Structure formats: C-alpha cells, structure tokens
Amino acid sequence: MARKKSFRKDDFLNFPNAFKEDHEKKGKWKEYFGNDYPLILELGCGKGELSFGLAEICPDRNFIGLDLKSDRLWVAAQRAAEAGLKNLAYQRLDIGQLTDFFAVGEVDGIWITFPDPYPKSKRAPRRLTHYRFLSQYAEILKPGGVIEFKTDNFELFEWSREHFLACGLTLDHLTYDLHHSELLTPETGIKTYYEQRFLKMGMKINYVRFTLEGLHEPPPDSDSDEIQSPV
Ligand SMILES: C[S@@+](CC[C@H](N)C(=O)[O-])C[C@H]1O[C@@H](n2cnc3c(N)ncnc32)[C@H](O)[C@@H]1O
To answer: Where are the domains positioned within the chain?
Structure first.
C-alpha cells in the first residue's frame, strides 16, 4: 500500500494533465486548454469524481481539480487521461496559496466538496468556508462567479451558513438534503467518493450555492464558536 502511494506520488507528473505548484500557468489557463471556456475549480478534489463527471457532461467548460495529495490526484489524472478528457486537469497545491496560482478574475466557478471540518474552534480559520479563504476566492473569481459547497457534516454546514451570513453573503439556494431536493441536477447529483460513502451510511448531503456579492470581513469573534453537535 505504502509502495503504491509512493509510486503514485512520484509518477503523478507523468500525466499530460497533471501539475504541481505550477506558477507559470497563473493567468494562462486559457492557453493551456486552448479555448476561452469558463474555468471551474474543485477544491480538495481527492480522486476527482466530481470534476471528472462535470467535465464529461459540460464539454464547453474547463475544470481543474486541486488537492494537497498527489497520490489521490494520480488516480484522478489517470482516469481523465484514459477517458481523453481535454477539458480537465489536476494540480497539487495548498488551497491556502490559491492566489499564487490563479490570476485576478481568472476563475468562473468554485466547488468545495466534503472539506475537512476542523471541529475545534481554534482551527476554524482552516475551514475552506472561512473568510480567510472566501477573501482569496473573491480575488480569483470573476464578479458573479458561483461557489458551490457540499458536505455531509451538518455542524460544519451550519457554522458555514452562519459565517457566510456574518460575511454579508446572500444564500438563496440551500438544502439540507440535496438528493431529495429541487436543487438536484445532473451536475449537483454527481457523487464524490466521500459522498458515496456517506449516502450508503444513510446520511443527508447539505448543499449551498452562492456568489460573493456583498462579501465583507465578519464581525470580530463571529468565527470563534466550536462546531456544535445537533441536540
Ligand atoms: C475529506 S476529503 C474529500 C475528498 C473529495 N472532495 C471527496 O468528496 O471525495 C478532503 C480532501 O481535501 C484535501 N485537502 C485538505 N486540505 C487541503 C488544502 N489546504 N489544500 C488542498 N487540499 C486539501 C485532502 O487532501 C483531501 O483529499
């Protein structure tokens, strides 16, 4: 297992659609894809089931899956290369450094899929839905660019919902049970690896879609609550 992981880490860059902390692509993703199609990112994509599914059903959009773990990205890149998907790439990077790899307004949409919840209060700034990250997304997203967020974790979802409101955002498209909701579409219905596991366990999937219009820093201490378990 460890050997397989190590092989995948080393082999990842051998795929033509795979990159590691590639600063030279910043502002030049249109040149890489060879067209002007909208660019959509999947943050913390793991093995990339969502970005793969989206790239298959939306050939007039480009997708990049991003993750810290190149052994997981290897699985994603191999599958995309085998399928011959030209509108899909993967890059190893830390989401905290997103603005080093994408130019201002270069991105049209962002998916956040089943991110690590970081339940302890002092780790709230590590949540991918924290203002610290939202302000970075605001830099690389075009005005009106849409963020979509999916999680099984009710506590993270509720914390994020309240945090988004404290940051001045408007949340018109939100559900606590995506797969039995009118927000279910061919795109939102694509199941990630974690999503498949949680659905098998009978859990509901929370989903929200929003823009960053009105984004401002939240009031002090509005992000300090620990994620509370439902009573
Ligand atoms: C719980 S997994 C979810 C994977 C996938 N989205 C899914 O739904 O199956 C969280 C993923 O986020 C990645 N991740 C966590 N923090 C990250 C960071 N700061 N930058 C990039 N990726 C990160 C992890 O490596 C992991 O693959």
So the answer is: 115-129+141-231
pTM above 0.85, yes or no: yes
In the CATH scheme, what is the code of domain 115-129+141-231?
3.40.50.150
Among 8, 21, 42, 45, name the best residue to mutate to test ligand 1's pocket (greatest count of ligand atoms within 8 A of Cβ). Answer: 45
Type of residue numbered 127: R
> b/e map of 81-95 (b: 16 or more CB within 10 Å)?
beeebebbbbbbbeb
- H or E element at residue 140: helix 131-140
3-class SS string, 165-220:
HHCCCCCCEEECCHHHCCCCCCCCCCCCHHHHHHHHCCCCCEEEEEECCCCCCCCC
**pLDDT, one tens digit for every residue, the chain (231 residues):** 788 888 888 889 999 999 999 999 999 999 999 999 999 999 999 999 999 999 999 999 999 999 999 999 999 999 999 999 999 999 999 999 999 999 999 999 999 999 999 988 889 999 999 999 999 999 999 999 999 999 999 999 999 999 999 999 999 999 999 999 999 999 999 999 999 999 999 999 999 999 999 999 999 876 656 666 554
Do residues 29 and 107 make contact, with C-beta atoms less than 8 angstroms apart?
no
CA of 46 to the centre of ligand 1 (A): 5
Q: Catalytic: 108?
A: no
The secondary structure of residue 125, as a DSSP letter, is G
Ligand 1 site, CB within 6 A: 44-46, 66-69, 72, 94-96, 113-116, 192-195
